[in-house]
Write a structure and sequence with these properties.
The protein is of the alpha/beta class. It is built from twelve helices and twelve strands. The strands form two sheets. Strands 1, 2, 3, 4, 5 and 12 form a six-stranded mixed sheet that branches. Strands 9-8-7-10-6-11 form a six-stranded mixed sheet. The radius of gyration is 20 Å and the shape is globular. The chain starts with a strand and ends in a 9-residue tail after the last helix.
């Protein structure tokens, strides 16, 4: 071993499991791999800078870099990616027939500055011309109380973003008709329980998301791996070794998706889903690296600025370790 030990934290997933179970190592370095709940991990990383490398919200990381107070620099490793057409829920009795009808409506969101809601709002502006400033935002817990205090960001004039009344839950407010809609990264309780007036804005979201990717090339990035800036500066070979380890772990996970002889994943048609995904998105559909992801990389800092969360759109060159480290 040439260095370490370094602590590396990330969410458990198929694409990170080989790092957890030891099948993949960070070559030349002693590492302590921690698979953590992402909310707890974010708090520990952002308040204590507890980890040498850690998976972070791409939106929150971008905001901190724009403010000049991030101890981290990003690597083009994206452990969490999701299309977000599915994340928008509406009251079906408010005359919302399509995205244009969202203007002037009151929408709940768990956090105005989380990546899921940021990307969904960015998609609405890019695809349908509906800007964040044209909607009213109420921030709160969704299905159950999670926080003692609801914080909202300081935004420029023209944004209406406020916390909900203490004790209120956004899912209950949507069911009661106190808000017109809700952005949520997972189905809220009122939708799961089939409230008669709660529906998705885009019921056929898989088809829309496929079309969106075909036209834009964007597979939205939710989280990126980051490493402490001082560590990256003094030990660039660790950065490359860590990148290579994440690439290899992902390769092993993707290989399990195509196993027509004996299924490695417990879904009956996983092989067919894999084949369809490759036909649409290419062999390296969950790609790492700068060149293959430039449209998705640039989208988030553009949305951060457009939605009032930074004074300027941060260029990728200020957010990521030099591309030369990861050119393959």
């Amino acid at each position: 071993m040439t260095g370490g030990p370094f602590t590396v934290a990330f969410s458990p997933a198929d694409r990170t499991r080989p790092l957890i179970d030891g099948r993949v190592k960070v070559e030349g370095y002693a590492t302590r791999m921690l698979a953590l709940d992402h909310e707890d991990m974010f708090v520990r990383a952002l308040t204590k800078a507890e980890f040498d490398a850690v998976e972070l919200s791409y939106c929150r990381y971008t905001i901190d870099v724009a403010k000049g107070n991030s101890p981290y620099i990003a690597l083009p490793i994206f452990p969490s990616r999701l299309f977000r057409h599915s994340a928008i829920y509406v009251r079906s009795d408010r005359g919302i027939a399509g995205p244009a009808d969202l203007r002037g409506k009151v929408f709940g969101v768990r956090n105005y500055a989380n990546t899921a809601s940021l990307v969904a709002r960015g998609m609405l502006e890019d695809e349908y011309g509906v800007r964040a400033q044209e909607m009213i935002w109420r921030v709160g817990d969704i299905d159950h109380k999670e926080r003692a205090k609801i914080d909202v960001p300081v935004l420029p004039a023209g944004y209406d973003v406020k916390p909900v009344t203490e004790g209120k839950l956004l899912s209950d407010m949507l069911a009661a008709g106190e808000i017109d809609g809700l952005f949520d990264y997972q189905p809220p309780r009122c939708f799961v329980e089939k409230h008669p007036h709660v529906a998705r804005l885009f019921p056929d979201y898989p088809a829309l998301e496929r079309d969106y990717f075909k036209r834009t090339g964007i597979f939205p990035i939710m989280h990126a791996m980051v490493v402490k800036r001082d560590l990256a500066a003094r030990n660039p070979s660790f950065v490359r070794a860590l990148y290579d380890a994440f690439v290899e772990a992902k390769r092993l996970a993707i290989a399990d998706l195509y196993s027509p002889g004996a299924l490695a994943i417990s879904l009956p048609w996983v092989t067919e889903a894999y084949t369809e995904t490759v036909a649409l998105m290419g062999d390296d559909f969950w790609s790492y690296g700068m060149a293959a992801n430039r449209a998705a990389i640039d989208a988030v800092p553009r949305y951060v600025h457009a939605q009032g969360l930074s004074a300027r759109a941060m260029p990728a060159e200020e957010l990521f370790v030099s591309e030369a480290n990861f050119r393959r």
